[in-house]
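Troubleshooting log. The previous structure file for this entry was overwritten by mistake, so regenerating from the original sequence record. Sequence copied from the archived sheet and checked twice against the printout by T.R.
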Amino acid sequence: MRILITGAAGFLGSHLSDHLLADGHEVIGMDNFVTGSADNIAHLAINENFSFYKRDISNYIFVPGKVDAILHFASPASPNPQSKSGYFNLPIQTMKAGALGTHNCLGLARTQNAKFLLASTSEIYGDPEVHPQIESYAGNVDPIGTRAVYDEAKRFAESLTMAYHRFHNVNTSIVRIFNTYGPRMDLEDGRAIPNLLKQALLGQPLTVYGDGAQTRSFCFVDDLVNGIVKLLYSEEHFPVNIGNPVEMSILQFAETINRVTGNTAGIIFEDSRSARDPQRRQPDITRARSILQWEPNIDLEEGVRRTIPFFKQKLGLV
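Regenerated output below.
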């Protein structure tokens, strides 16, 4: 296939590009580098099956020739208020990527009779009152809170995707992505893994906000990409959770990071940064198992070990 990936220079987009090229497809990458990095796709410059366009997909999308599939992964995703590339500091761009960008991608998919796959998020569940989260759960989201620019952009994108499927018969899929980590993460992302792994590698005490009882479920990027590609090849149109169902508290996670890295600086506790942070997060992956025959294979300790060399390189520790 000839596949367009928006957000191709991002963490997930670049790994998807690698995987699909290895599968023998031609990949067209698109990014405006607001949050993505040219370093993530530099190694693809010599690949004759990879081409790249610097574009803001909120404005327009055009690529020459036929496109067989479109994977829409362009969006700020970092919740870090200190990050210039996080959605707190790019609220309008985030909403436009979810609304106008999705609309433009779906319009191209319709005219090209191409498959469309939307990258959605576990954040559409908000601070969930149903646990673990199943795809039929409508969520508990504050539409005017500071996180809403990301949450509601993705919720709207899902609605628009289903409208194009139902009204225009576009072949669509929606993946709801849970916490993912691995090489090429933004070290200033602001989420648990980059924060704590960076501190551990620098020999600093790990900062846990609140009492550390809030939970997350961490999926290594290779596992996640395998699930997304299986969904791309499927005929499933309704949302599918892709993530690791092993739930752990942030405190347990911090202890794991210290153990794997050999960091002896311990753990310190600080006041919670936001009352709106989800307190629990765990995917129910029953549908992924039954529809895609997918589940993650890489446990947290192995995934962290595979991620450490990238972090060391970025931190200048090698």
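The chain has a mean pLDDT of 94. Archived copy saved in two places this time.
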